Amino acid sequence: xxxxxxxxxxxxxxxxxxxxxxxxxxxxxxxxxxxxxxxxxxxxxxxxxxxxxxxxxxxxxxxxxxxxxxxxxxxxxxxxxxxxxxxxxxxxxxxxxxxxxxxxxxxxxxxxxxxxxxxxxxxxxxxxxxxxxxxxxxxxxxxxxxxxxxxxxxxxxxxxxxxxxxxxxxxxxxxxxxxxxxxxxxxxxxxxxxxxxxxxxxxxxxxxxxxxxxxxxxxxxxxxxxxxxxxxxxxxxxxxxxxxxxxxxxxxxx
Length: 254
Ligand code: UDP
What we know:
Layout: E1 6-9, E2 13-17, E3 23-28, E4 31-34, E5 39-42, H1 46-63, E6 70-73, E7 78-82, E8 85-86, E9 89-96, H2 99-105, E10 112-122, E11 131-132, H3 134-139, H4 145-167, E12 171-185, E13 188-194, E14 202-206, H5 216-219, H6 225-236
Antiparallel strand pairs: 1-2, 2-3, 3-7, 4-5, 6-7, 8-12, 9-10, 9-12, 10-11, 12-13, 12-14
Helix pairs in contact: 1-6
């Protein structure tokens, strides 16, 4: 059988044409970048773990009625997803000050915020992910007011649900980045959760010790990077049975 046609290659994932119209195959790589691509590396087994973690979290979200692009996991590194029209925004929701918020406003990392806050960043090559406001988003037509309302409502639900889910495993959800897409179904437009939810785009700290279990271990050279991702999967009860040796996984499905 011919190799699937590659449609897009990003920093951590590759998208291939799916088996049926309206579907895509999302392949998770071990590659990691940070600082807008200035730092590059490989986190062995990350793709396998993120595929599983994202499958697990999107499935749980689907069960409470959050629409997602996820259809099913195909193998160690690939999942079948619905093709959506991506909205060019990163929606960040924060519960505790960390990262760029701490830097920008001089807030000590770990300071609990009085309420969860949402920020938007514009996804565009070469612009270094600028923060934007609702005014920019609607003025430049990246999303309509109704799309934004839907994204905010979904983001708050997702954040509340995942905060509880993670806390049940002793993990504090500090912040997370979400991406959404438009799905046209029977002439109706729906905003659905897309991309992935994994330690690549969440901050996850041990609720008791504050130990980081996310990509900050890579970004900040904290060591034990693989172990952080594995610990998240272990706590969620989804670490592949064969353990670390199982992590390489098969190559792209033919
Ligand atoms: N994040 C992301 N992609 C990016 C930048 C940030 O997924 O290109 C996530 C990051 O993992 C964190 C949240 O968005 O969970 C907020 O990140 P922040 O704005 O603090 O940026 P950073 O400090 O990572 O540069």
